[in-house]
Design a protein that fits this description.
The chain is built from 1 helix and no strands. The chain is low in regular secondary structure.
Length: 222
Protein backbone atom coordinates (compact mmCIF):
# COMPACT_ATOMS: atom_id res chain seq x y z
CA UNK A 1 0.00 0.00 0.00
CA UNK A 2 2.83 2.37 0.90
CA UNK A 3 4.44 1.75 -2.48
CA UNK A 4 1.19 2.55 -4.32
CA UNK A 5 0.90 5.83 -2.40
CA UNK A 6 4.50 6.88 -2.96
CA UNK A 7 4.72 5.91 -6.64
CA UNK A 8 3.04 9.08 -8.04
CA UNK A 9 5.35 11.28 -5.96
CA UNK A 10 8.41 9.36 -7.16
CA UNK A 11 7.24 9.75 -10.77
CA UNK A 12 6.71 13.49 -10.31
CA UNK A 13 10.17 13.80 -8.76
CA UNK A 14 11.81 11.98 -11.69
CA UNK A 15 10.00 14.11 -14.26
CA UNK A 16 10.95 17.29 -12.38
CA UNK A 17 14.60 16.19 -12.23
CA UNK A 18 14.64 15.48 -15.97
CA UNK A 19 13.10 18.86 -16.73
CA UNK A 20 15.68 20.57 -14.52
CA UNK A 21 18.50 18.74 -16.28
CA UNK A 22 17.17 19.74 -19.67
CA UNK A 23 16.98 23.32 -18.42
CA UNK A 24 20.59 23.17 -17.29
CA UNK A 25 21.70 21.94 -20.70
CA UNK A 26 19.79 24.73 -22.41
CA UNK A 27 21.30 27.36 -20.12
CA UNK A 28 24.77 25.87 -20.54
CA UNK A 29 24.64 25.84 -24.34
CA UNK A 30 23.26 29.38 -24.32
CA UNK A 31 26.20 30.52 -22.18
CA UNK A 32 24.05 31.49 -19.20
CA UNK A 33 25.90 29.07 -16.91
CA UNK A 34 29.14 27.14 -16.98
CA UNK A 35 27.89 24.41 -14.66
CA UNK A 36 26.10 21.39 -16.09
CA UNK A 37 26.79 18.33 -13.93
CA UNK A 38 25.34 15.11 -15.32
CA UNK A 39 24.20 16.81 -18.53
CA UNK A 40 23.83 15.05 -21.87
CA UNK A 41 26.20 16.93 -24.16
CA UNK A 42 27.33 14.26 -26.61
CA UNK A 43 28.85 15.60 -29.85
CA UNK A 44 28.48 19.21 -28.71
CA UNK A 45 30.77 21.81 -30.33
CA UNK A 46 32.49 23.95 -27.70
CA UNK A 47 35.63 24.83 -29.64
CA UNK A 48 37.66 27.62 -27.98
CA UNK A 49 35.07 28.11 -25.22
CA UNK A 50 36.18 29.46 -21.84
CA UNK A 51 34.93 26.99 -19.21
CA UNK A 52 37.52 27.57 -16.53
CA UNK A 53 36.22 26.31 -13.19
CA UNK A 54 33.08 24.77 -14.74
CA UNK A 55 31.29 21.87 -13.08
CA UNK A 56 30.78 19.16 -15.70
CA UNK A 57 31.10 16.22 -13.36
CA UNK A 58 29.47 13.02 -14.65
CA UNK A 59 28.44 14.82 -17.84
CA UNK A 60 28.24 12.95 -21.13
CA UNK A 61 30.67 14.72 -23.48
CA UNK A 62 31.39 11.76 -25.73
CA UNK A 63 32.44 12.87 -29.21
CA UNK A 64 32.43 16.52 -28.13
CA UNK A 65 34.64 19.10 -29.86
CA UNK A 66 36.65 20.67 -27.04
CA UNK A 67 39.54 21.83 -29.20
CA UNK A 68 41.48 24.63 -27.47
CA UNK A 69 38.81 24.89 -24.76
CA UNK A 70 39.89 26.50 -21.49
CA UNK A 71 38.94 24.06 -18.73
CA UNK A 72 41.49 25.10 -16.15
CA UNK A 73 40.36 24.01 -12.68
CA UNK A 74 37.16 22.45 -14.10
CA UNK A 75 35.38 19.54 -12.44
CA UNK A 76 35.13 16.68 -14.95
CA UNK A 77 35.16 13.89 -12.40
CA UNK A 78 33.36 10.83 -13.78
CA UNK A 79 32.66 12.56 -17.09
CA UNK A 80 32.33 10.57 -20.30
CA UNK A 81 34.82 12.05 -22.79
CA UNK A 82 35.08 9.00 -25.03
CA UNK A 83 36.23 10.02 -28.50
CA UNK A 84 36.23 13.71 -27.55
CA UNK A 85 38.58 16.20 -29.24
CA UNK A 86 40.63 17.83 -26.49
CA UNK A 87 43.58 18.79 -28.68
CA UNK A 88 45.48 21.81 -27.29
CA UNK A 89 42.94 22.27 -24.50
CA UNK A 90 43.89 23.85 -21.16
CA UNK A 91 43.05 21.41 -18.35
CA UNK A 92 45.54 22.58 -15.76
CA UNK A 93 44.47 21.66 -12.21
CA UNK A 94 41.29 20.05 -13.58
CA UNK A 95 39.64 17.10 -11.83
CA UNK A 96 39.24 14.19 -14.23
CA UNK A 97 39.25 11.46 -11.64
CA UNK A 98 37.36 8.42 -12.91
CA UNK A 99 36.72 10.10 -16.26
CA UNK A 100 36.43 8.05 -19.45
CA UNK A 101 38.89 9.31 -22.08
CA UNK A 102 38.87 6.21 -24.27
CA UNK A 103 39.90 7.08 -27.85
CA UNK A 104 40.08 10.76 -26.91
CA UNK A 105 42.39 13.17 -28.76
CA UNK A 106 44.71 15.04 -26.40
CA UNK A 107 47.47 16.30 -28.68
CA UNK A 108 49.41 19.10 -26.94
CA UNK A 109 46.74 19.35 -24.23
CA UNK A 110 47.95 20.82 -20.94
CA UNK A 111 46.95 18.71 -17.94
CA UNK A 112 49.64 19.94 -15.58
CA UNK A 113 48.73 19.17 -11.95
CA UNK A 114 45.43 17.63 -13.10
CA UNK A 115 43.84 14.77 -11.17
CA UNK A 116 43.34 11.74 -13.43
CA UNK A 117 43.36 9.09 -10.74
CA UNK A 118 41.36 6.07 -11.85
CA UNK A 119 40.72 7.61 -15.27
CA UNK A 120 40.46 5.49 -18.43
CA UNK A 121 42.61 6.65 -21.37
CA UNK A 122 42.68 3.51 -23.51
CA UNK A 123 43.96 4.19 -27.05
CA UNK A 124 44.06 7.94 -26.46
CA UNK A 125 46.12 10.03 -28.88
CA UNK A 126 48.17 12.15 -26.50
CA UNK A 127 51.31 13.14 -28.39
CA UNK A 128 53.20 16.01 -26.74
CA UNK A 129 50.65 16.18 -23.95
CA UNK A 130 51.74 18.00 -20.79
CA UNK A 131 51.19 16.05 -17.57
CA UNK A 132 53.73 17.75 -15.32
CA UNK A 133 52.98 16.89 -11.67
CA UNK A 134 49.67 15.30 -12.68
CA UNK A 135 48.15 12.49 -10.61
CA UNK A 136 47.36 9.39 -12.69
CA UNK A 137 47.44 6.83 -9.89
CA UNK A 138 45.58 3.68 -10.87
CA UNK A 139 44.67 5.05 -14.30
CA UNK A 140 44.11 2.69 -17.24
CA UNK A 141 46.25 3.92 -20.13
CA UNK A 142 46.82 0.91 -22.37
CA UNK A 143 47.88 1.45 -26.00
CA UNK A 144 48.16 5.24 -25.57
CA UNK A 145 50.39 7.36 -27.82
CA UNK A 146 52.40 9.59 -25.44
CA UNK A 147 55.18 10.37 -27.92
CA UNK A 148 57.05 13.51 -26.91
CA UNK A 149 54.95 13.97 -23.77
CA UNK A 150 56.12 16.16 -20.89
CA UNK A 151 55.26 14.48 -17.61
CA UNK A 152 58.06 15.22 -15.15
CA UNK A 153 57.16 14.50 -11.51
CA UNK A 154 53.84 12.87 -12.50
CA UNK A 155 52.35 10.08 -10.39
CA UNK A 156 51.66 6.84 -12.29
CA UNK A 157 51.62 4.57 -9.25
CA UNK A 158 49.80 1.29 -10.02
CA UNK A 159 48.74 2.62 -13.42
CA UNK A 160 48.23 0.27 -16.38
CA UNK A 161 50.38 1.57 -19.24
CA UNK A 162 50.85 -1.64 -21.21
CA UNK A 163 51.60 -1.36 -24.94
CA UNK A 164 51.81 2.43 -24.79
CA UNK A 165 54.27 4.57 -26.74
CA UNK A 166 56.44 6.76 -24.51
CA UNK A 167 59.01 7.63 -27.17
CA UNK A 168 61.07 10.73 -26.33
CA UNK A 169 58.81 11.49 -23.34
CA UNK A 170 60.19 13.57 -20.48
CA UNK A 171 59.50 11.35 -17.46
CA UNK A 172 62.06 12.67 -15.03
CA UNK A 173 61.31 11.82 -11.41
CA UNK A 174 57.98 10.16 -12.26
CA UNK A 175 56.46 7.66 -9.86
CA UNK A 176 55.91 4.33 -11.61
CA UNK A 177 55.76 2.18 -8.50
CA UNK A 178 53.86 -1.03 -9.19
CA UNK A 179 52.87 0.16 -12.65
CA UNK A 180 52.01 -2.28 -15.46
CA UNK A 181 54.50 -1.47 -18.26
CA UNK A 182 54.59 -4.70 -20.27
CA UNK A 183 55.44 -4.18 -23.96
CA UNK A 184 55.60 -0.40 -23.53
CA UNK A 185 58.12 1.53 -25.63
CA UNK A 186 60.40 3.96 -23.80
CA UNK A 187 62.69 4.64 -26.78
CA UNK A 188 64.75 7.79 -26.08
CA UNK A 189 62.62 8.53 -23.01
CA UNK A 190 64.06 10.58 -20.15
CA UNK A 191 63.58 8.53 -16.97
CA UNK A 192 66.21 10.08 -14.76
CA UNK A 193 65.52 9.51 -11.06
CA UNK A 194 62.23 7.80 -11.92
CA UNK A 195 60.84 5.27 -9.45
CA UNK A 196 60.07 1.95 -11.18
CA UNK A 197 60.23 -0.14 -8.05
CA UNK A 198 57.93 -3.15 -8.19
CA UNK A 199 56.84 -2.33 -11.74
CA UNK A 200 56.08 -5.03 -14.32
CA UNK A 201 58.30 -4.19 -17.30
CA UNK A 202 58.35 -7.39 -19.32
CA UNK A 203 59.24 -7.02 -22.98
CA UNK A 204 59.79 -3.26 -22.57
CA UNK A 205 61.90 -1.36 -25.13
CA UNK A 206 64.34 0.97 -23.36
CA UNK A 207 66.48 1.66 -26.45
CA UNK A 208 68.51 4.84 -25.91
CA UNK A 209 66.45 5.70 -22.81
CA UNK A 210 68.08 7.61 -19.93
CA UNK A 211 67.59 5.72 -16.63
CA UNK A 212 70.35 7.48 -14.70
CA UNK A 213 69.54 7.44 -11.00
CA UNK A 214 66.27 5.51 -11.49
CA UNK A 215 65.01 3.15 -8.78
CA UNK A 216 64.74 -0.30 -10.37
CA UNK A 217 64.41 -2.36 -7.21
CA UNK A 218 62.13 -5.39 -7.64
CA UNK A 219 61.28 -4.35 -11.20
CA UNK A 220 60.40 -7.32 -13.39
CA UNK A 221 62.39 -7.09 -16.65
CA UNK A 222 61.65 -10.63 -17.77
Amino acid sequence: MAIAVLAPFVLVFLITAQDALAGNEEDFLAGRTMDCPGCQLADVNLKRADLAGADLSNANLSGANLHRVRLRGANLAGANLEGANLNKSDLQNADLSGANLTDAMLFEADLSRANLSGAIMVRALAGRIKLTRANLEGAEMTAVDFKGARMANANFKNADMRRSNMQAANMRRVNLQGAQLDLTGFVQAQLREADLSGAMARGVDFFDADLHGANLSDTDFT
